[in-house]
Amino acid sequence: MQSKKLLIALLIFTSILSCKDDEKEKIEEVPLQTFVEPEGIKEFGFNLNDYIVKRDTIKSGDSFGVILERNNLGYPKIFQIAERAKDTFDITKLQVGKPYTLLCAKDSIQTPRCFIYQPNKEEYVVVNFHDSIHAYTSRKPIKYVEKVATGTISSNISEALEEQGLSPRLAFKMADEIYAWTIDFRRLQPGDRFKVIYTDKYIDDSIYAGVHNIKAAFFEHNKEPFYAFQFETDSTKGIKDYFNEEAKNLRRAFLKMPVKYGRLSSRYNLKRRIAYYGYKIRPHKGTDFAAPVGTEIMATANGTVTESRRKGGNGNYVKIRHNATYSTQYLHMSRRKVKVGDYVKQGDVIGWVGMTGNTGGPHVCYRFWKNGKQVDPFREKLPEAEPITDSLKVRYLEYIKPIRTQLDNILFEEQEPEIELAIEDDIIS
Questions:
Q1: What is the DSSP letter of 258?
Q2: Would you call 96 exposed, middle or buried from its count of C-beta atoms within 10 A (0-12, 13-18, 19+)?
Q3: What does 163-196 look like in DSSP terms, one character per residue?
Q4: Which end of the chain offers a freer environment for a tag, N or C, measured as fewer CB atoms within 10 Å?
Q5: Residue 158 host element (H or E)
Q6: DSSP states of 191-212 as a string?
Q7: Cα-based torsion angle of the residue sequence 204, 205, 209, 210 in order, rounded to the nearest 10 degrees
């Protein structure tokens, strides 16, 4: 009887050992990644899983202190944070409508630990007061995706792009930045066609931020080919121009107009008569471009700001010296963006359309000086932009060889698939 019990006990013990061996074998067979914990959701350099995340936008009447006090932080602590952060971030400049994020502790009152403010889509300001108080500005990761597009004109270029679901910004860039002086886009012909290599911009991989840049383009207008390649001619000042396959600059030294979305409302006229003044001659030495209040005003050429102020009938205005011969002036601005001594590049925003000074409606009065005398820019034979230097020409021609090959290999087919090449952080700028 006793031996029978011993036998049963031995069998049970052996069974247990066998089970453990089986479990051991099963554990060893399970892949390691099965036990890897998933990564947390990261944004602004923080693991959001560690916090209670509160997102909102700045409302009218909100301030840094009001927001934190509303979220259970006492005034003495708020004052301490503001004092420590002021050298890095001016907390009084929060703009209505801009988003902010509060990272709060997972405690009973959800104590704020960090305030993050986004003045634009790319930048953000972090005021961290969890352990020690510190503030800094950073940027979200940016990705540029290179793409190609083709189109054939039936009525206009915007329609050709729209049919393919492409951004109309491509049309504006080709018309205003590349071919403004070589192709009249108001007189395109049915059958004209184009190819373009460009980059789209994405923030945080998923937020589309529009067309960033056009690398190269080919336009066939009236059976005549027009190549365009972007090339940096001055790395110190960041000046880039578009040149053709023979290294000839495609633009003039001056833009045709200082606003992109405006209309010519009054021309330069030394014999202008106005009924309000009894039809007396009141010379108009500027060229007026009507546009809505807030429209961006651009420098029409590279140069240095010599005046930026408000004065009499001119209202808010900016004056730029381009060289020893030419200067330009921009009147009636609502606001000015530049100050005396600033160097501006052609196309840079220098202010916004307004109605300051003597004006009957929103517009920019554009004045043009040649050798100290105001002239009509539309009657002047304006100089071409600076040609590429001989030392750069050889490098330019080598640079465009593979890009031209890429352009030439793009076929004009309606169903041509888009080619994409992911390019990270500022590799293309």
A1: S
A2: exposed
A3: TTT--THHHHIIIIIISTTT--GGG--TT-EEEE
A4: N
A5: helix 157-162
A6: T-EEEEEEEEEEETTTEEEEEE
A7: 170
Greater confidence (172 vs 112) lies with: 112
Q: Residue 88: pLDDT above 50?
A: yes
Rounded to the nearest 5°, which phi and psi values hold at 93?
-100, 25
Tell me the per-residue pLDDT of 360-419, one tens digit each, with 9 for 90 and over: 889 999 999 999 999 998 888 877 777 788 889 999 999 999 999 999 999 886 544 544
Determine the Cα–Cα distance for residues 102 and 112; give it in Å rounded to an integer. 6
Q: Chain centroid to CA 392: how far?
A: 28
Amino acid at 283: P
The phi-psi region of residue 3 (left if phi > 0; otherwise alpha if psi is between -120 and 50; otherwise beta) is alpha
φ/ψ of residue 298, rounded to 5: -110, 150
Look at 115 and 423; give whichever has higher pLDDT: 115
Q: 364 in helix, strand or coil?
A: strand
- Mean predicted confidence (pLDDT) in 63-80: 90
CA distance 350 to 319: 10
Compare 318 and 192 and report the one with higher pLDDT: 318
Please give the structure tokens belonging to residue 296: 């961006």
DSSP state of 72: T
Question: Using CA atoms, how far apart are residues 257 and 125, in angstroms rounded to an integer?
Answer: 37
Distance between CA atoms of 203 and 186, rounded to whole angstroms?
A: 34
Per DSSP, the residues of 36-52 read PPPPPPEETTEEGGGSE
Under 8 Å between Cβ of 164 and 151: yes
Q: Which of 22-31, 182-191, 277-286, 334-343 has the highest mean predicted lDDT (pLDDT)?
A: 334-343
Q: How far apart are CA 261 and CA 168, in angstroms?
A: 13
* 287 close to 428: Cβ distance less than 8 angstroms: no
Q: Which of 59, 128, 40, 54 is nearest to 88 (CA)?
A: 128
Query: What is the distance between the alpha carbons of residues 126 and 175, in angstroms, rounded to a whole number?
Result: 40
Q: Which residue has the higher pLDDT, 155 or 345?
A: 345
- Name the token pair of 96: 């209505």
Q: State both tokens at 155.
A: 């009525």
Please give the pLDDT value at position 353. 96
pLDDT at residue 280, rounded to an integer? 63
**Chain centre distance of CA 350:** 16
**Cβ neighbours, 10 Å, residue 111:** 15
376 forms bridges with which residues in the sheet?
Answer: none
Between CA 229 and CA 406 the distance in angstroms is 12
